[in-house]
Each structure stands twice: as structure tokens, then as C-alpha cells.
Amino acid sequence: MPQSLIHQLENSLQLHLKKAELAFECSFPTPELTFNVRGKVAGKAYLQQWRIRLNPTLFIENQQAFIEQVIPHELAHLITYHQFGRVKPHGKEWRYVMANIFQCPPEIYHAFDVSSVQGKTFTYQCQCQTHLLSIRRHNKVKRQQTRYHCSLCGTQLERLNKEKVINSL
């Protein structure tokens, strides 16, 4: 990871930390930044450990968005926990910190292209459409630990194997 990129993230972290300190009239320790989140998640805040974990691949591909959105998003979780205790992760307190203190849109999900970090998927079918399940969800179905249903039609998802695809053509 280039040191100049890490420095930009740290600058964003310090800027938003100062905004929170001014707003709440107290000082906060600097959270530890690590780059060890995998998958489609951009970042995770660990409240008790005062740590922010970031996805290094998505960061390299979306540097400015991480600086402007992901760092404030995750820091807002830490600040919210520190000031308000255990509350809903994206509840009114978190939205307040994002919008009023950090002047950032309180968006919950990122819109990054995740094709470079997308794991293997398996095709499933309901009555109205096909669904792609992650390998983790597919394995839960295989081990009969869970069943998934379509959020639109409500029917149970069934694995669509190659034979079914050929027969449906």
C-alpha cells in the first residue's frame, strides 16, 4: 500500500476527528487503521477496540470515495458509540454525526464496483427471477442449515444447475 495514500486517509481521519472534538467539546483518541477487510465490504468499525478496518482492494480502486465517504462513515460509528452508547448502527444518532458534524451524506451502502473482489457465486431460481448466492450462502443451503426465499414472490430458491439451464432453452 503506497504510503502517500495511507497519509491521505489519515489526514481525512484527523480532519473528521477534529470536527467531532469541536462539536462534542471533548477529545477522542485516533482510531487504529488497518487494511484487512475482504469481500465486498468497504470498511468496518470495531467499537470497543476503537479500530477501523478497510478493504485494501476497494480502497485502491476508489481512493477519493474512501477519503470522502468511507472514513467519515466508519468514524461516525466510533464517535456515535462513544457519545451515545449502544444504538442502532445507522440510526438517528449516527445520521446526526454524519450530516451535522461531518457534513457528509448519511449513506449506508457504497456503490463501488465489486467485480474485482466478488467471490464465486451460484445460480438459484425462484418463480420470478434468478438469484446469485455467495459461496457461503450456497454452502449453508447444501448443509441444510437454511433456506432462502425471494423477496418479491416469496418462493423458496432452488439451485439452477447446468442441466436445468439447457432444458429451459
Secondary-structure topology with pairs:
Layout: H1 3-24, E1 32-34, E2 43-46, E3 51-54, H2 56-61, H3 63-84, H4 92-101, E4 121-125, E5 130-134, H5 135-142, E6 158-159, H6 162-167
Parallel strand pairs: 1-3
Antiparallel strand pairs: 2-3, 4-5, 4-6
Helix pairs in contact: 1-3, 3-4
Textual characterization of the structure:
The chain has 169 residues and is an alpha+beta fold. It has 2 domains: 3-101, Metalloproteases ("zincins"), catalytic domain (Zincin-like); 121-167, no CATH class. The strands form 2 sheets. It has a 3-stranded mixed β-sheet. The protein contains 6 helices and 6 strands. It has helices at 3-24, 56-61, 63-84, 92-101, 135-142, 162-167, and strands at residues 32-34, 43-46, 51-54, 121-125, 130-134, 158-159. It is elongated. The active site is at 74. InterPro entries: SprT-like_domain, Uncharacterised_SprT. Residues 11-160 form the SprT-like domain.
List the strand order in the largest sheet. Answer: 1-3-2
Helix content: 40-55%
Helices, by number, come to: 6
CATH architectural name of the largest domain: 2-Layer Sandwich
Distance between the termini: 47 Å
The assigned structural class equals alpha+beta
Q: State the domain count.
A: 2
Concise synopsis of the structure shown:
This protein is α+β, with helices and mostly antiparallel strands and 169 residues long.
Features:
169 residues, alpha+beta, Zincin-like, 2 domains, three-stranded antiparallel beta sheet, 14% strand, zinc, metallopeptidase activity, protease, metal-binding
